[in-house]
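We both want to read discrete structure tokens more fluently, so let's practise on a single case. Would you write everything just below, so we can both look at the same thing?
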Amino acid sequence: MSYEQRFSLDNMEGDKIINLMLSKALLFLILPICVILFLIGLGLVIIKKLPCIGRWLVLTGFLLLYLLSIRPVSDALIRPLESNFPPFRSRSPLNSANSIVVLTGGTVDLAWLGISPEPSRESLSRLIYGVTLYKQNWGINIVISGGSGDPDKKNIPEADAMKDVAVALGVSAKDILIERGSMNTIESVKALKRFVGEKKIILVTSAYHMKRAAAMFKKMEMNVVPAPTDYMSEQKKVSLYSLIPTAKHLLTSSTAFYEYISFIWYKINGKV
């Protein structure tokens, strides 16, 4: 490869990373926690000149923070996303599928400990379910798709970290295929279109993410059987304990908003 060709590819990669950083930053800025901090901060700034409006903004910010941090609200937000597809129960589609595709969901960079990166909780949950399906039907390939969607970890391919764990869990290395060039779901879909074509695949990803992922695969006219996992909502009665705010439930609410906004964005752009 000539210097000019290499320089061109490096520029393309750099442009992808810059676009990814900008889109991620914009999305994070409109998620609940940033909106809440903005409301509270703005309220405190103007409270002396406009006391009524200032107090209202601060109160609204704290009220939103409380509501999004309790289980009844976070479950109500995430459950519609997780109920789009039923749990994968039948083995019959598995017997006719060519591959089990597992989408990555992040890594944990442990370089500060001098050890290799590990799959995030989300990635690990997806991978374990994919391995479970694999062990029900030996001989079918597992395709792990995902480079890095985190601009701060662009040199840590998520698929490689997941492959190491899959091998440790008993999956034969020859049955694992890796796609490590994509930075987000739509790039994974495009890469997998070239990878598996129109062959039937079992798609494994988090239940809240399945609606968007499956819609993208369908848009590319790919034959997908959804196998959702990593559920975040639970069926529990409302109690005094469930009204205690926690960071876990704030994360669930934020995840739901992230997914709703992402789906709407890709819908507007004709990608789902």
